[in-house]
Amino acid sequence: MFILPFLSGTLSIxxxxxxxxxxxxxxxxxxxxxxxxxxxxLFLFFVMPITVxxxxxxxxxTALLASDAIFGVGLxxxxxxxxxxxxxxLSEALLAGILVIxxxxxxxxxxxxxxxxxxxxxxxxxxxxxxxxxxxxxxxxITSRLWQLVMPAFWGIGQIFALFLGxxxxxxxxxxxxxxxxxxxxxxxxxxxLASLPLYLFEHTRIIFVNTLFLLCTVPLIxxxxxxxxxxxxxxxxxxxxxxxxxIVSIYAFxxxxxxxxxxxxxxxxxxRGGNTA
Length: 278
Fold this sequence. Notes:
With 278 residues, the chain is mostly helical. It has helices at residues 3-14, 16-29, 31-36, 38-41, 47-56, 60-87, 90-111, 113-130, 137-173, 188-196, 206-216, 218-233, 239-252, 254-267. The mean pLDDT is 85.
């Protein structure tokens, strides 16, 4: 069993997304010891990323990969378990893990800016080489500027999605049903979204504002999705049909879902906090 955290750490260097799924599964399988001592249970996770960082950390790409594994996966799992041990509420543990991903994604944007820029330019050069006839120069310039603006947020959003999938796996592994009514997050989280709005007023902080807003809005999007799922369940009983409908809604109406989740958090602030206990 304890080989899983080592494998999770190794996999996280190659793919933080898959590494997150594996470490969340392991955390559920070893839930008793993990709640007693999260640092002891997850110790082996950090062995390979730290070793890689010490051996080849001078190279920007290697340092970025190791850092993503340490802070974008391992630290997230540790904070998740630590919060769950203290509060015994799964949704609050999920929120704590998401906050770690958001904080690291913003720090990553500045600490590893040269490596991220080099990776982006290499990818664009590859596209231009392989598909020169399909690329309009003016369109590419606009797309390039937009992508460079939001690229840090997209990495974080991917990791938040991975954490949420891991959260679903966690629920299934410990045999606690994941009910839509329990996906309720603290109303104080909305204050973080409101607090980020003044960043738009200053030109040199607008890139921070865009990435911060995108990352922060994932939480109300999740809450809005589950509220819509709960309402849809009153009309449609077939899970396959509900999944198809919600997939379409998520693609074409993710902004209304986010606003619904944001509003639901305010409206639920006077009610009992949501979330199953572990």
